[in-house]
Amino acid sequence: MLPPPRGAVQRPALAVWEFTRACDQRCKACGPRAGVARPDELTTDEALRLVDELAELGVGEVALIGGEAYLRADVLWVIRRIRERGMSCSLTTGGLGLTQTRAEALVEAGLQLVSVSIDGLEASHDALRGTPGGWRRCFEALAHSRRAGARIAANTQINRLTWRELLPLCDLLADAGAEVWQMFLTMPHGNAADHPELLLQPFELLELFPELERVIARCAARRIRFWPGNNLGYFGPLEGKLRRLQQEDGHYKGCSAGRTGLGIEADGTIKSCPSVGGAVNAGGNWRDHGLRALWERAPEIRYVEQRGLDSLWGYCRECYYADTCMGGCTAMSEPLLGRPGNNPYCHHRALEMDRMGLRERVEQVAGADDQAFAHGLFRVVREPKAAGAGPVTIEGPRTGREAAFFGPGAPLAVAGADEP
């Protein structure tokens, strides 16, 4: 049984809907491990009823993702219903099979914006996506969508292969007519948990953010709206430029999961964030409860809104910005350390460590299973910037199966400088 409602709950501005998990690519950083449709995905009639409930709840925009949403022919019916119910509709796609014919059909149905996932320059993108020629087809997808009458955008994962290629990619996107460019750090779940070598180290944020400052300036010059993902930033000196289009004061206001946004899985599972999965994040299934009851009452969806400072641990609990930031993006910290509340991927934190002569890096100590959004287990190693200059501190989760690796406290160990 769901608990009774707890006061007024604001409406979600954005619903991100995994329309199907079927996909025509096998990307190395895919969180849901897309490829094959989920068992018991919503039927067309169910999807149309869910659209009606999204409108009744007050959702402003529905973003269709996958897998690849265009692999279900009934996506045209759903887009049309979304628009008929007064909501805007966008599509995020890998672009591989977004032909001119498909683009025209999607736009005719009411699709307004197409965001194509482009991860770096050609060699990096094709290596990450496992699809030779895929990068070129992404730019063809942008052109097809623009000719069909849609606004076009791009989204890019920042990782070891891509982060030095952002400036030249900016010019290519501007030449293609992209209006918006979203960036986010690769998250350590799903397929990316099987490829930890892709992840930037926390201390490498000190190199990344000066590069991002140059990218932001280039975006402004080329008239592209730079849009940082929820796991990028946090109170460093670049924050005002990073989030100037998102916040009036240019500062991060905490995770939006379950506050202004919700996620929908293809089988009707409702969750607070589209980038998390598993039972701990699932509020329940739409078929069983309906959308409004889950949004207003499911503890898993209301978690971010209702948690307090006691949910923070490790360095984040001690941080000056703790009560505003609340550990940043939960979809970054939970796959990394087993639970939210301690996030080493923070520009402010990296700068503070550097000021103290320290740096942080992450090490994987357990792999992930083959489920969607599954994550393994990492630990944070805090060490002197100069090798051999002092002790090493290791932080890790404190509860559940993580305790079998780390024990019950955090910080969990202090080792000699010669110990990893």
UniProtKB/TrEMBL annotation:
Required cofactor(s): [4Fe-4S] cluster
Keywords: 4Fe-4S, Iron, Iron-sulfur, Metal-binding, S-adenosyl-L-methionine
Keyword check for Cytoplasm: no
Domain Radical SAM core residues, every copy: 9-225
Keyword S-adenosyl-L-methionine appears in the UniProt entry: yes
Entry superkingdom: Bacteria
Record PROSITE patterns: RADICAL_SAM (PS51918)
GO molecular function, one term: catalytic activity
Name of the protein: Radical SAM additional 4Fe4S-binding SPASM domain-containing protein
Phylogenetic lineage: Bacteria, Pseudomonadati, Myxococcota, Polyangia, Nannocystales
